Amino acid sequence: MLGLASRLRAMPDAELRHVIAVRGVTANGIHDFFDLAEALLEPSNVQLALSHLDRPTLAVLAVAGQLTSSGSVPTLNAVTSQLSELGSADVALAEVTRRVDTLHVLLLAEHNDGCCIPYAAVAAHLARWPAQGLPGAGDLAITLPPAAITAVPGSEIAFIDQLAAERAFAVVSSISELINELSREPARQLSRGGLGLPDTKRLAAVMTVEVDLVTSVLAVAARADLLALSDGYWMETEAGEAWLLERTTDRWAALAAAWQAALPPIVADSLPRQVGLLWGDGLTTFIAWLYPAGGEWMLSQLTEFARDAEVLGITAHDTTSTAGSSVLRGDPEAAIATMANALPAEVGAVYLQHDLSVVAPGPLSPAIDSRLRGMADVESRELASSYRITAASVNRALAAGEDAESLLAFLASISLTGIPQPVEYLVNESAARYGRVRVGRLTAGPTAQTTPAAATGAETVYLSYVSSADAALLGTIAVDQTLAALALVRSSDDEHLLSRFAGDAVFWALRDARYPVAAENEQGEIVHLRRHPIARVTVAPRTDPARNLVEKLRVVADNGTSVADAWLARQLDTAIKAKQTILVSIAMPGGAVVDYLLEPASVSNGRFRARDRRADIERTLPLKSIRSITPAP
User: Fold this and answer.
1) 292 burial class (0-12, 13-18, 19+ CB within 10 angstroms)?
2) What number of H helices and E strands is found in the chain?
């Protein structure tokens, strides 16, 4: 432990923080570098570190441990020679050196003077593996890998790529529908995690996917920051809003890039990157062989990313696709080019029908699709989509800032069949009716002269009002049972309806009930409301536990005490707590070294007090005179 503590103390802060993070050490109970060394040599921490090492690296560590325990010098040449004698296929000196450097960085061994010297606790832990059902040094070195990952016949690659393209198009379409739906009505995240069944079924219907796939598709979108949790609800983000306007290939590329960026390096290095290689059981077996102590965590990581790879078209039928191979090799341009050739071409025109339906002969350009959705309801979302224009959908567009002229101009620019008379009539009629019902805040009213007041004697505080020049329409709203929750009451002037709810809640309730409602400000001008805010993806400032721990250790280490003195004090403190008798070698003034059998009582001011078990007297000795401390025989 002394050697490791000394090494930790001498390490630069950046390296120290890195190793603390990689080894998963927490600050609990760590007060100095000896505590940190002890934590790193704990069996559970050693096992965690070993579980992330591949078989050849473990073989190097195990052989070096065996050489050390047998009294041999574990030089790199000796380790290489021993691996060769055991029958290992990977015995190049350069490769062994690289793996020793990895062990050195992870503080599992020291690469010193051309030797690989494992720490005693690490070597002892690895030596106990066979008793735990894990491979020993011999098995690590000579066990052959399972059969190589197989590949599908070359004739099937075209089918794999076609299926991958279909998956890519499907996931992009599904996520587009998901973002649009969540912009309309967010989905609540349960406190225990996941979505509730009603929201899951709603989103599955919108995306036209199986209920079991909703979680996967949501995770793919969230990984690309297209969705985010805000106050317990899944909502679209600014990135998601912008993503909807990009080309299909670019949208897919963003999803694939987010998937690749999230891959843990240990998983990324294990995935088959060549086109046509099968993942499935063969890959699982190979991973289990390569990381013998990886356990469930490795398989769970592999399962999660393999599932999403299938959703994205990185693989199809558990086989690496051509585009997927490019993604795994870090060549997004090649992946986009492959998908661009495989995905259906986007179209920029539609057929407007007299029955108010809109039919797209292919996948619409995202910009056109986004605007068309603002004024029409999606009826089917396949390779060729269909929409329907209704009074409510036109009102939705008008509420978003459109007018009859802009709507008809847009439809004329994309229609292959002109604008049918029923469509033109519906747009003009809806625009003429729009705003016949107004909703505003009651704090100031539309103007100072027309501020509505509650009926005499009313004690309820009202926050908003509903007004209309059409008295009959206002009367209909007042008795509409679908609006009963708003508890609308007549004002004293009988020209307004008052509500104790905020204006935006009243506005959306009226719009859902399909009234030609508009929101207005204090000056009586129409304003456009957004139903749900966009979720902001913010990176919360994170405290770095490793940095805080290193700073604390440096303060303790800079108190002027040498490592040797600190180590002696620690040994004495341990003996005091355990009430242990120790054999202490003391350098006397004349140069002689005397051994005392002592039971330490306290340490302070560079001296320690102890009971001499042989002379049965109390002694006070300077720490600087101690040459060694060993447990009593």
Assistant:
1) buried
2) 27, 22
Q: Maximum distance among all alpha carbons in the chain?
A: 117
The secondary structure of 76-110 as a DSSP string is: HHHHHHHHHHHT-S---HHHHHHHHHHHHHTTSEE
User: CB–CB of 372/387 below 8 Å?
Assistant: yes
Q: Print burial letters for 93-130: b (CB count within 10 Å at least 16), e (below 16).
A: eeebbebbebbbebbbbbbeeebbbbbebbbebbeebe
Q: Report pLDDT for 3.
A: 73
**Structure tokens belonging to residue 164:** 């991958």
505 token code pair: 């809640």
Nearest to 414 by CA among 346, 498, 325: 346
Residue corresponding to tokens 């499907």: 170
Phi, psi of 620 (to 5 degrees): -120, 115
CB 288 within 8 A of CB 302: no
The answer to whether residues 356 and 393 touch, using CB atoms and an 8 Å cutoff, is no
CA angle 30, 36, 40 (to 5 degrees): 130
Sheet-wide strand order for 187-188: 187-188, 233-236, 227-230
Q: Kindly list the domain boundaries of the chain, sorted by start residue.
A: 41-142, 154-342, 351-433, 437-527, 560-631
- Crossing angle (nearest 10°) for helices 214-223 and 295-312: 90
d(CA 277, CA 547): 43
Dig out the tokens for 186 from the structure: 């967010």
10 Å CB burial of residue 259 (0-12, 13-18, 19+) is buried
- Strand segments, DSSP code E, in 366-461 are 377-380, 386-388, 437-441
> What distances in angstroms separate CA 202 from CA 98, 227, 502, 548, one per listed residue?
53, 17, 27, 46
Does pLDDT of 105 surpass 50? yes
Q: What are phi and psi of 518, to 5 degrees?
A: -135, 150
d(CA 295, CA 299): 7
Handedness of CA 234, 237, 506, 458 (dihedral sign): positive
CA distances 524 to 283, 304, 447, Å, are 67, 54, 7
Our CA dihedral for 504, 507, 511, 512, rounded to 10 degrees, sits at: 60
pLDDT at 356 over 60: yes
Give residue-wise pLDDT tens across range 111-129: 988 889 999 999 999 999 9
Compute the distance between CA of residue 459 and CA of residue 179 in angstroms, rounded to an integer: 43
Looking at the predicted structure, is the pLDDT value of residue 501 above 80?
Answer: yes
Contact, 194 vs 359, CB < 8 A?
Answer: no
In this predicted structure, the answer to whether residue 453 has a pLDDT above a threshold of 50 is yes
Q: Are 423 and 411 in contact (CB under 8 A)?
A: yes
Structure tokens at 625: 């005179």
Rounded Cα distance between 540 and 386, Å, is 42
Cβ count within 10 A of residue 428: 15
Angle, in degrees to the nearest 10, between helices 366-375 and 391-399: 110
3 state DSSP class of 279: coil
Cα dihedral angle (123, 124, 129, 130), rounded to 10 degrees?
Answer: 110
Q: Which fold, 560-631?
A: SH3 type barrels. (2.30.30)
**Separation CA 550–CA 258 (nearest Å):** 32
